[in-house]
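Reviewers of the previous submission asked for a worked example of the structure-prediction workflow described in the proposal, so we include one complete record here. The input consisted solely of the amino acid sequence. No template or homolog information was supplied to the procedure at any stage.
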Amino acid sequence: MRVANYYNNKDIRIENRPIPTIGRGEILMKVRSTGICGSDLMEWYRCQKVPRVLGHEVAGEIENVGEDVVGFKVGDRIVAAHHVPCYD
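From that input alone, the workflow returned the following structure tokens.
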């Protein structure tokens, strides 16, 4: 998959990454659209966390579902609530 990888405000690279594998109770989202918010561009905030994939405000469709996932299926359109932590 292609990602916009942030190194600093003047160095953002489109790079290839492997498609993540999912586990039990997880959903794999194929991102169709993403927003870049203000925190993505605050270099002083990001400089200690590079490289970092940009775009945490996402919408897309379900590409795959793990075991024990109910109520969702491949092809469903979804959005991610980016301020709800999973605590993993």
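The chain is about 5% helix and 40% strand. We consider this example representative of the routine output the project will generate in years two and three.
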